[in-house]
Design goal:
4 helices; 8-stranded mixed beta sheet; alpha+beta; globular; single chain; 13 strands
């Protein structure tokens, strides 16, 4: 998902994984980690920020930090990982991982990582939005998907309708779905930066904005088996903090 957009966020400051409500959630403070960026307007330094307070499990909070770039939304990920964001006219991608060339979008990430992508339905990002919407959203967004296909820029076969066969989907609202992609399978979890691997991927897809040109947030979380218990907190925090309107 390249040609990424610069859109300023003023105050956005497994093993087997089951996405279920976390027991004992309460306000917890985690460190802020600024992430450097690069894109259409050139390199951007990592922002400085204050620790982030979130309603998450206290035990999980001890192993997590809040990562955010200048033009991206933020996300939780394990402490001590590195991060980098790419931005441009079609959206932003924030990649967080312990290793790897995070500044190279052409390189799939094979190991553990947390990736948060924001694609704009009003720009060239509409193609990526439509591909995910065709998979998991069957409301008024269907007309948007049809209009993108009708442009003829990409073949209709690039927009298959219906979920990936191996994915487990849990709808929270008509425009917010949690997913689990099993290890070694194609799915929403491998639709962006993550390559298939021996570890499963969990996450969410969320549409915001008008149905005729929505933005898409896609969060993909792949953790090592020893840290898989942090996944539910990462997804829960994203649901609580991602915008509900286009930015």
């Amino acid at each position: 998902m390249l040609n990424l957009r610069a859109s300023s966020y003023a105050t956005l400051v497994c093993a087997t994984v089951v996405l279920a409500p976390l027991a004992g959630e309460a306000a917890q403070t985690v460190p802020f980690v600024g992430c450097a960026s690069d894109g259409q307007q050139g390199p951007v330094a990592a922002p400085k920020g204050q620790p982030k307070t979130l309603d998450i499990d206290p035990a999980a909070a001890k192993g997590l930090a809040w990562y955010q770039a200048e033009y991206s939304a933020g996300a939780l990920a394990p402490r001590g990982w590195k991060c980098f964001s790419l931005y441009g006219s079609s959206g932003t991608t924030l990649a967080i991982a312990p290793t790897g060339a995070l500044n190279d979008a052409s390189q799939p990430i094979a190991g553990p990582a947390v990736v948060l992508t924001d694609d704009s339905g009003g720009t060239s990002g509409r193609f990526d939005v439509a591909k995910i919407a065709a998979r998991v959203f069957a409301g008024p967004e269907k007309a948007f998907v049809a209009s993108v296909i009708a442009e003829g820029v990409e073949p209709k076969g690039d927009f298959p309708a219906g979920p990936y066969p191996s994915d487990k989907l849990t709808y929270k609202t008509p425009t917010l779905v949690e997913f689990a992609t099993p290890a070694g399978k194609d799915g929403l979890g491998t639709a962006d930066r993550l390559a298939k691997s021996a570890l499963p991927v969990i996450g969410l897809a969320k549409l915001v904005g008008p149905a005729d040109g929505p933005d898409l947030y896609l969060l993909s979380v792949r953790l090592p088996a020893t840290g898989a218990d942090l996944g539910a907190a990462i997804v829960s925090a994203a649901e609580a903090t991602l915008p509900n309107t286009s930015q």
